[in-house]
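sry for the spam today, last one i promise. C-alpha coordinates for design, 162 residues
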Protein backbone atom coordinates (compact mmCIF):
# COMPACT_ATOMS: atom_id res chain seq x y z
CA UNK A 1 0.00 0.00 0.00
CA UNK A 2 1.39 3.38 -0.97
CA UNK A 3 1.13 6.27 1.45
CA UNK A 4 0.28 9.62 -0.07
CA UNK A 5 1.21 12.72 1.87
CA UNK A 6 1.42 16.38 1.07
CA UNK A 7 4.93 17.77 0.65
CA UNK A 8 6.21 20.24 3.21
CA UNK A 9 6.45 24.01 2.68
CA UNK A 10 8.49 25.23 -0.29
CA UNK A 11 11.07 27.86 0.66
CA UNK A 12 12.39 28.47 -2.86
CA UNK A 13 11.80 32.22 -2.55
CA UNK A 14 13.76 32.49 0.71
CA UNK A 15 17.00 33.83 -0.74
CA UNK A 16 17.60 37.11 1.07
CA UNK A 17 19.96 38.00 3.86
CA UNK A 18 18.62 39.95 6.83
CA UNK A 19 20.14 41.05 10.12
CA UNK A 20 17.98 40.47 13.20
CA UNK A 21 18.39 42.67 16.28
CA UNK A 22 16.99 41.46 19.61
CA UNK A 23 17.23 43.82 22.56
CA UNK A 24 18.05 41.82 25.69
CA UNK A 25 16.08 42.57 28.86
CA UNK A 26 17.78 43.90 31.94
CA UNK A 27 19.91 46.84 32.88
CA UNK A 28 22.15 48.47 30.34
CA UNK A 29 21.94 48.37 26.58
CA UNK A 30 22.66 44.98 25.02
CA UNK A 31 21.50 43.97 21.53
CA UNK A 32 22.02 40.49 20.07
CA UNK A 33 22.75 40.65 16.32
CA UNK A 34 22.06 37.58 14.14
CA UNK A 35 22.84 37.38 10.42
CA UNK A 36 20.15 35.19 8.79
CA UNK A 37 20.82 33.96 5.24
CA UNK A 38 17.93 32.42 3.34
CA UNK A 39 14.98 34.54 4.49
CA UNK A 40 11.97 35.93 2.63
CA UNK A 41 11.31 39.67 3.10
CA UNK A 42 8.42 41.42 1.39
CA UNK A 43 7.63 45.11 1.78
CA UNK A 44 4.27 46.40 0.60
CA UNK A 45 1.80 49.26 0.98
CA UNK A 46 -1.49 48.80 2.81
CA UNK A 47 -4.43 51.14 3.12
CA UNK A 48 -5.41 51.77 6.75
CA UNK A 49 -8.43 53.54 8.19
CA UNK A 50 -7.47 56.07 10.84
CA UNK A 51 -9.32 58.50 13.09
CA UNK A 52 -8.57 61.40 10.75
CA UNK A 53 -9.44 59.53 7.53
CA UNK A 54 -7.49 56.87 5.70
CA UNK A 55 -3.92 56.65 4.55
CA UNK A 56 -1.18 54.39 3.27
CA UNK A 57 1.22 52.49 5.51
CA UNK A 58 4.35 50.61 4.62
CA UNK A 59 4.19 47.01 5.93
CA UNK A 60 6.46 44.00 5.76
CA UNK A 61 6.38 40.22 6.05
CA UNK A 62 9.49 38.26 7.06
CA UNK A 63 9.67 34.46 6.83
CA UNK A 64 12.57 32.68 8.55
CA UNK A 65 12.68 28.97 7.58
CA UNK A 66 13.96 26.47 10.13
CA UNK A 67 16.22 24.10 8.24
CA UNK A 68 19.84 22.97 8.30
CA UNK A 69 22.45 25.70 8.00
CA UNK A 70 20.20 28.45 9.34
CA UNK A 71 19.98 29.90 12.86
CA UNK A 72 17.45 27.98 14.99
CA UNK A 73 14.42 29.55 16.70
CA UNK A 74 14.09 29.62 20.47
CA UNK A 75 11.07 31.02 22.29
CA UNK A 76 11.87 34.26 24.14
CA UNK A 77 11.51 32.56 27.55
CA UNK A 78 13.84 29.73 26.53
CA UNK A 79 16.34 32.10 24.85
CA UNK A 80 16.66 34.39 27.87
CA UNK A 81 17.43 31.40 30.15
CA UNK A 82 20.32 30.25 27.88
CA UNK A 83 23.97 31.05 28.46
CA UNK A 84 25.90 33.01 25.82
CA UNK A 85 27.40 29.75 24.50
CA UNK A 86 23.96 28.16 24.15
CA UNK A 87 22.63 31.24 22.32
CA UNK A 88 25.21 30.82 19.54
CA UNK A 89 23.41 29.81 16.35
CA UNK A 90 20.00 30.53 17.91
CA UNK A 91 17.68 33.54 17.71
CA UNK A 92 14.46 34.91 19.11
CA UNK A 93 12.23 37.85 18.18
CA UNK A 94 9.74 39.91 20.15
CA UNK A 95 7.53 42.82 19.15
CA UNK A 96 9.76 45.89 19.22
CA UNK A 97 12.84 44.08 17.92
CA UNK A 98 14.34 45.29 14.64
CA UNK A 99 15.76 43.98 11.40
CA UNK A 100 17.74 45.34 8.48
CA UNK A 101 18.05 44.11 4.91
CA UNK A 102 21.41 42.59 4.10
CA UNK A 103 24.27 42.64 6.56
CA UNK A 104 23.35 45.38 9.00
CA UNK A 105 25.63 47.35 11.33
CA UNK A 106 26.34 46.62 14.99
CA UNK A 107 24.02 48.57 17.30
CA UNK A 108 26.14 49.59 20.26
CA UNK A 109 24.20 52.54 21.69
CA UNK A 110 20.54 53.56 22.11
CA UNK A 111 21.18 56.21 19.41
CA UNK A 112 22.20 53.45 16.95
CA UNK A 113 19.00 51.55 17.84
CA UNK A 114 16.83 54.65 17.24
CA UNK A 115 18.61 55.43 13.95
CA UNK A 116 17.57 52.09 12.39
CA UNK A 117 14.18 53.21 11.08
CA UNK A 118 12.03 52.32 8.03
CA UNK A 119 13.28 55.29 6.00
CA UNK A 120 16.82 53.90 6.26
CA UNK A 121 16.01 50.28 5.39
CA UNK A 122 15.14 49.04 8.88
CA UNK A 123 11.93 47.42 10.10
CA UNK A 124 10.43 47.20 13.58
CA UNK A 125 8.74 43.89 14.38
CA UNK A 126 5.11 44.24 15.50
CA UNK A 127 3.99 40.58 15.40
CA UNK A 128 5.82 37.24 15.66
CA UNK A 129 4.30 33.80 15.04
CA UNK A 130 5.59 30.23 14.94
CA UNK A 131 4.27 28.16 12.03
CA UNK A 132 4.25 24.38 12.42
CA UNK A 133 4.28 21.46 10.01
CA UNK A 134 3.84 17.88 11.26
CA UNK A 135 4.25 19.00 14.88
CA UNK A 136 7.55 20.88 14.36
CA UNK A 137 8.29 24.57 13.87
CA UNK A 138 8.88 24.93 10.12
CA UNK A 139 9.27 28.71 9.99
CA UNK A 140 8.83 31.94 11.92
CA UNK A 141 6.75 34.81 10.55
CA UNK A 142 7.32 38.39 11.65
CA UNK A 143 5.85 41.60 10.33
CA UNK A 144 3.58 44.53 10.81
CA UNK A 145 2.92 48.07 9.66
CA UNK A 146 5.72 50.62 9.77
CA UNK A 147 5.06 54.19 10.82
CA UNK A 148 6.43 56.64 8.26
CA UNK A 149 5.89 60.32 7.75
CA UNK A 150 3.73 61.47 4.85
CA UNK A 151 6.77 62.39 2.78
CA UNK A 152 8.35 58.96 3.35
CA UNK A 153 5.82 56.94 1.37
CA UNK A 154 5.67 56.57 -2.38
CA UNK A 155 2.25 57.23 -3.85
CA UNK A 156 0.62 54.02 -5.07
CA UNK A 157 -0.36 53.74 -8.72
CA UNK A 158 -4.06 54.20 -9.28
CA UNK A 159 -5.79 51.76 -11.58
CA UNK A 160 -7.41 53.44 -14.57
CA UNK A 161 -10.74 51.93 -15.62
CA UNK A 162 -12.26 52.90 -18.93
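last one done:
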Amino acid sequence: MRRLCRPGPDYGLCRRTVTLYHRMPGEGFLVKRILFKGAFLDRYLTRRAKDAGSGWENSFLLILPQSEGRPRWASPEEYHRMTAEQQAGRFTLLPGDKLAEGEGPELLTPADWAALDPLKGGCTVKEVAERRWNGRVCHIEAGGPQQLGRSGLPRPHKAVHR
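The helical segments are 76-81, 84-87, 110-115. ok im logging off now
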